Amino acid sequence: MALIREDDLIGSVADALQYISFYHSPDFIAAMGRAFELEQSPAARDAIAQILANSRLCAEGHRPICQDTGIVVAFVKVGMGARFTGQRSLADMIDEGVRRAYLDPDNRLRASIVADPAGKRGNTRDNTPAVVHAELVPGEGVDVTVAAKGGGSENKSMFEMLNPSDSVADWVLARVPEMGAGWCPPGMLGVGIGGSAEKAMLLAKESLLETIDMPELKARGPRTHLEELRMEIFDRVNALGIGAQGLGGLTTVLDVKVRDYPTHAASLPVAVIPNCAATRHVHFHLDGSGPARLEPPDLASWPQVAWAPGPGVRRVQLDGLTREQVASWKPGERLLLSGRLLTGRDAAHKRICALLEAGQPLPDGLSFGDRVIYYVGPVDPVGTEVVGPAGPTTANRMDRFTETMLGKAGLLAMIGKAERGPEAVEVIRRHRSAYLIAVGGAAFLVSKAIRASRVVAFGELGMEAVYEFEVRDMPVTVAVDANGESVHESGPREWQARISGIPVAVE
Known about the structure:
The protein is an alpha/beta fold. The protein folds into 3 domains: 1-24 and 65-149, no CATH class; 150-286, no CATH class; 314-492, Fe-S hydro-lyase, tartrate dehydratase beta-type, catalytic domain (fumarase, Alpha-Beta Barrel), CATH 3.20.130. Helices cover 32% and strands 23% of the residues. It has 15 helices and 19 strands. The protein has helices at 6-22, 26-38, 42-61, 90-102, 151-154, 168-179, 197-207, 214-220, 225-238, 323-327, 346-357, 402-407, 422-430, 443-447, 487-498, and strands at 2-4, 71-79, 82-84, 114-115, 122-123, 131-137, 142-149, 158-162, 187-194, 253-261, 268-275, 281-286, 314-317, 334-343, 372-374, 413-416, 434-437, 450-457, 466-480. The N and C termini lie far apart (48 Å).
């Protein structure tokens, strides 16, 4: 009988979560390196370069790959011959490990979990509780896989009860464009088929823990019908031309994973869950001999990709920015922003717009007139940092507030990630505004451009407070211009037309 010490499980969970916060797995790095080498879209290639450069910076500096350090999901297989010492439940032990990891003063991770989700949505402040899936299995040890799933990709999860005669591949292909770019492609798609409704979702989530091996599968050919399905979905999704960050390009997915389970004769439950460019998970085993030891990956496995703005980039001074200058920006144009900008996410927007709609003043010192807002919830700084990793959040969650923010608050432009909805694009066009994107999955790289930070309003919201950042050469791309042209429509459309005959990232 293996005796598993409570502190060994707690410490191992904490170490694993710190580990995955700053280390990409080698299989992901290799797949992104192949995608970079083969990419022909300049915009997508630039985005992949930023993701790879960010990944190396995080591995070297032990800082989070993404500002969204995720909701923790733990898959625990407990051997029936194992016994835990201590009095805590399994979930409580996992939660204590999460708490220690996210409050680690050397690499504090962002607390994103809110309790009372349909009500007050108060932040739990330590990213607990985790979501725990436990299973009793033969053996004496304990196997744990921890994952930290970002909200941008998790929000794009989809499920449907198909008819038994329906095509799973056709269903997935119809869903991927609906996901947009908020899941930060390129990444992986996990597909779960069968069982019951909740089982299909769990299968899809579990499949994302598998190693990226599409190049090997392509080289040897499929051996099962599920491998045939993987290859079919992979090829058809990449042929959509969505590309990195939805800008148009050759690689939308690095791999597709499929798991299935027997189901009712009348049913075909199917789920699809994407994993983003900040894919984070690791496995460890406990046998009673002590905590798990995770070996750092070899930095030599990272491709030598050094991101730089490149020629043709326009430098923009935010202080004194005019509507005429904003109107001169072109779709797809790369900008380097310098000066002061404000931040805001869902909670802050809700408060701001409620005040404006009621004709009430904003908090002292807060004005959006002729300003630019960045949709971000940064990680807390450590050491000499002015701010921690600070990548963009999914912009279309702010679409409902766009008319008020442009029309009543007086914003000039917005920065986020992924596409805006058609109504928001029309509001941007009508107000002669613009929407810019920063690269999701390059949070630490982006934070290097932030030279000063202060809380302006709603400090009690934590990472969702309104900050003022002073930035220098912050890289962004014009996603929607003052005429309402969106690169998230034009880019994929162009590359879908061009993609026939162009090799995808694993060929």
